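Researcher: Structure prediction, please.
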Amino acid sequence: MASDRYVVPQHLDDPELIGLWTLDEALAMIIPFVWGILTQHILIGIIFSFAGWWGLKKAKSGRTVSWLHHLAYWHLPAGFTGLRATPPSHLRLMAG
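Model: Predicted structure follows.
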C-alpha cells in the first residue's frame, strides 16, 4: 500500500506528450489547423494538419528529433537553425 503513493516513471527517455503526440507533432497539427480557422478554410486546415503530422511522423520514423535538426543544418540556409558557434555547412574542409 505504501508504494501506491508514489508514481515512478517507467521510461526516463520518453518525450513530453501533449495528448497522444510529442510537442513537434502537435505543432505540426496545430499550426495548419489554426491557419485554416483564421482563413475560414477549416477543411483545408484539417487536411494540412493531417499531412503535416503524417509527414513529420514519416520523417522521424524511429529516429530522434535531433536528426531533423542535423538535416536542417546541412540543407537549409545558415540563418534558419540559429547556430552561431558552428561553421557554415558548405565548408567541407577546415584548416587547422
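Model: Helices lie at 23-38, 42-60, 66-75, 78-81.
Researcher: Thanks, that helps.
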